[in-house]
Design goal:
The complex is a heterodimer of chains A (about 260) and B (about 160). Chain A is about 35% helix and about 25% strand. Chain A is α+β, with helices and mostly antiparallel strands. Chain A has two domains: about 5-50, Uridine Diphospho-n-acetylenolpyruvylglucosamine Reductase, domain 2 (2-Layer Sandwich), CATH 3.30.43.10; about 55-260, Uridine Diphospho-n-acetylenolpyruvylglucosamine Reductase, domain 3. The N and C termini of chain A lie far apart (about 45 Å). Helix content of chain B is about 35%, strand content about 15%. Chain B has five helices and five strands. Chain B has helices at about 25-30, 85-95, 105-115, 125-130, 140-160; strands at about 1-10, 10-15, 50, 55-60, 70-75. Chain B has a five-stranded mixed β-sheet, sandwiched between helices. In chain B, β3 and β4 (about 55-60) form a beta hairpin. The interface of A and B includes residues 32, 52, 76, 105 and 180 of A. The complex binds flavin-adenine dinucleotide and FE2/S2 (inorganic) cluster (2 copies). One FE2/S2 (inorganic) cluster (FES) binds near residues 97, 101, 102, 103 and 139 of chain B.
């Protein structure tokens, strides 16, 4: 790792000021993506601003028909929260399947979505549930937030403060994990929301998370695994790499969609 | 440079180190506790697992400065004098190690796994929970056996004490 200067932010304002004063800073949350990247010298920020101990950014709360999760809330906290399990069980199950226990103790929802790895799990949940991402500057819908592979609408100095999820009637997530990394080869989040049925796919799209409208209409008519069994996504826009071809991933998407619906 | 202070295995320590110092370097190089190992540079092997404020984390994927003010326990901090921790004793009893490289991380993860799941943890759960700990000698069979035995032993001890 190249040299860097570490700062621990005491508040959101403090984090903003420290970021502005630095030459080429990066925010640090759980560090489960940023630190490995810095160790490999693929990133070399002059300063890292640690958001991990900012009180306003952590915690889980129940709103009026919504669930609000602070940006630095860890995967472990989401997975073990009784509130999340009661309101959106699919989200708790998703968090419980991210990486391994040590990664879940440190990694955060804000870090995961800001990074927007095409194989990360959370983006599927945010898009399927129609979540709102709140930052220190504005509020964004999940579909506007995720722009493509490792790309989000966030500006350099913008900080995710929390994610607000409308409570869904039904929710579940099924992923086929890469056996070595545990990241999704294909992960499908299904939700029955007040806006209708929603299906979002991660791990498979070459542009990151995407929705499958054909499956959504089929589930609106009949919420059952059989309803999505005959629907496949075109392989043209899917990832193809040493772990699996685009055709293989297209097949996985249908299988994971069936499993997710069966789990609700 | 930055001053990093913490309680390491019950002892207050402090040192002036580079900001980029990883927690594992701080433990091994600054304080000479070489029980914690480094087996990869991709955050995947788990041989570096220590407890930070009671949570089992990869010390290669945390800056020492992030742990400033924390309580950190390494494998050296488990035994009570010459009496091994029940998980350590079970690894010895059940031959849960071959070359021993992954063992400190396995043991630190195991202590955390047992504290979350209790005595009746089944084999499938243990294997699933060990996803972040790799053993290149592939001696998982006996590692799983040792963890299961330690879970029962620790629970049994608790019942006896009640
Ligand atoms: C072995 C291993 C296995 C993993 N497996 C999975 C998996 O199966 N599924 C999965 O989804 N992920 C997986 N991950 C990634 C993990 O979920 C990370 O926690 C996550 O990608 C990043 O979160 P973090 O809190 O660690 O962020 P960091 O690494 O601290 O930061 C990541 C990026 O986000 C930025 N950032 C962080 N917080 C904010 C914020 N509040 N506002 C704005 N920008 C911010 C940082 O500047 C940085 O660019 C794995 C990681 C490891 C090491
Ligand atoms: S050395 Fe920390 S995970 Fe391999
Ligand atoms: S005992 Fe050799 S790596 Fe596990």
């Amino acid at each position: 790792m190249y040299d860097t200067t570490y700062h621990r932010a005491g508040s959101l304002q403090d984090a903003e000021a420290k970021f502005a004063a630095a030459e080429d800073a990066k925010f640090l949350a759980g560090g489960q993506t940023l630190l490995p990247t810095m160790k490999q010298r693929l990133a070399a920020p002059s300063d890292v601003i640690d958001l991990g101990k900012v009180p306003d950014l952590s915690g889980i709360s129940e709103g009026d028909g919504s669930l609000v999760i602070g940006a630095v809330t860890t995967h472990y906290e989401v997975a073990s929260s009784d509130v999340v399990k009661r309101l959106i069980p699919g989200l708790a199950a998703l968090a419980a399947g991210i990486g391994d226990p040590a990664v879940r103790y440190r990694g955060t929802i804000g870090g995961s979505i800001s990074n927007n790895d095409p194989a990360a799990d959370y983006p599927a949940a945010l898009v399927a549930l129609g979540a709102t991402i709140n930052t220190n500057k504005r509020s964004l819908s999940a579909e506007d937030f995720f722009e493509g592979m490792f790309m989000t609408a966030l500006e350099e100095d913008e900080i995710v403060t929390n994610v607000s999820f409308p409570v869904a009637e039904k929710s579940a997530y099924a992923k086929y994990p890469n056996p070595a990394s545990r990241y999704a080869m294909a992960g499908v989040f299904v939700a029955k929301t007040s806006a209708g049925s929603r299906v979002a796919v991660t791990g498979a799209g070459s542009d990151g998370v995407f929705r499958v409208s054909e499956m959504e209409s089929a589930l609106d008519a009949n919420w059952s695994p059989e309803a999505v069994a005959g629907i496949s996504v075109p392989a043209d826009d899917l990832l193809s790499d040493i772990h699996g071809s685009a055709d293989y991933r297209a097949n996985l998407v249908t299988v994971m969609a069936k499993r997710a619906v069966a789990a609700t | 440079m930055t001053t990093v202070s913490m309680t390491l295995n019950g002892k207050k320590v402090s040192a002036n180190v580079d900001d980029r110092t990883l927690l594992v370097q701080y433990i091994r190089e600054t304080h000479g506790l070489t029980g914690t190992h480094v087996g990869c540079d991709t955050s995947q092997c788990g041989s570096c697992v220590v407890h930070v404020d009671g949570k089992a984390v990869k010390s290669c994927t945390m800056l020492a400065a992030q742990a400033d003010g924390s309580h950190v326990t390494t494998v050296e901090g488990l035994a009570n004098g010459t009496e091994l921790h029940p998980v350590q004793a079970a690894f010895r009893e059940h031959h849960g190690l071959q070359c021993g490289f992954c063992t400190p991380g396995m043991i630190m993860s195991a202590v955390d796994i047992i504290s979350r799941h209790g005595a009746d943890i089944d084999e499938k759960t243990i294997r699933h929970e060990l996803e972040g700990n790799l053993c290149r000698c592939t001696g998982y069979q006996n590692i799983v056996k040792a963890i299961q035995a330690a879970a029962q032993e620790m629970h049994g001890a608790k019942v006896a004490a009640e």
